[in-house]
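Input sequence (410 aa), recorded before submission:
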Amino acid sequence: SSLAIGTSTGYRLFSLSSVEHLDQVHESNEIPDVYIVERLFSSSLVVVVSHAKPQQMNVYHFKKGTEICNYSYSSNILSIRLNRQRLVVCLEESIYIHNIKDMKLLKTILDTPPNTTGLCALSINHANSYLAYPGSASSGEIALYDGNTLKTACTIPAHDGPLAALAFNSTGSKLASASEKGTVIRVFSIPGGQKLYEFRRGMKRYVNISSLVFSMDSQFLCASSNTETVHIFKLEHLTDSRPEEPPTWSGYMGKMFQAATNYLPAQVSGMMSQDRAFATVRLNISGQRNICALSTIQKLPRLLVTTSDGHLYIYNLDPQDGGECVLIKNHSLLGSGKMEENKENDLQPPVPQSYAATVARQSTVPSTSTMPGYSEDGGALRGEVIPEHEFATGPVCLDDENEFPPVSIQ
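Predicted structure, token format:
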């Protein structure tokens, strides 16, 4: 529901509540060359790191225009992750875990394997606050750490080669990973570490997967890379899908391959039984870093792709049949509040009513509540709706001046 971008002049925050209109929530030009900007969901708390001071983390209450605190570290900050309970700062060879309510340093994980990209993932569900990071610089081992109990949970031997991407689902019960080869994506159960799914992105070429993300309902997993193709996989067991599928040549061949796996070595048969992409997107650009998200906007599932040249592309995702996603809007994130429209794609015929009706029928979710104070408006307009099971025992109330004393830590 929110997008944060760092620019050469500062940072910008957007609300993603509409396809047609991009609502800029905040813009700051106080700190130039921002390369990390992380917002706590739809609240007023934002964490910023700039190239001018790459070893310093600044925490702001942007709505009031005040600095809550700042921390300095021994080397450059490579990434920051946060939920309602913890704030994690990742350096090349160490990780710092803070209590987000008072920014107190709770734990320092020293001598981690060299992690030049700052690869790490934190569960957004603060009830568990699991943290995942590379457990080896030479193999695809994942170290799983419990950010609440501050203890190591387990080690997962995920891939043969070094890791390139990690992502938790919204509840923190699943973890997806990809290696530097980028050909296979695996999903593991958390905290046990058992392999649940294995998806093949492609076999022809190695790619650098830059973004790996689950949908909020954990039904889909999206992967984007430095190529022009974005893959969306559906988390379902093949034996449960389409039991009455009509006989076709491809279906017959699929059964033949499935039968053949019983006689092949495990390594080969595993590769043959991997799922292919449920849906795909062909981007107009290639070679640029991009970040993806699977979101529900105006009651329909969308794929969002933000590219490093400052564009946001919004696609329709058909949750029933998949296939090629349709581009419906292109926004410019670097203009002066103006939006660049893709007129050719704006003329696309509307999505059939049956598709919308199908999605509407499937979008029933358990009743949720809102907690005033997390967002600017209590979740009514551009804030988020917070499920009851995600309430903290003492929720962060970012509209309360006494919640974060304005301390400066050097």
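Checked by second reader. Helices lie at 249-260, 266-272, 343-346, 353-362.
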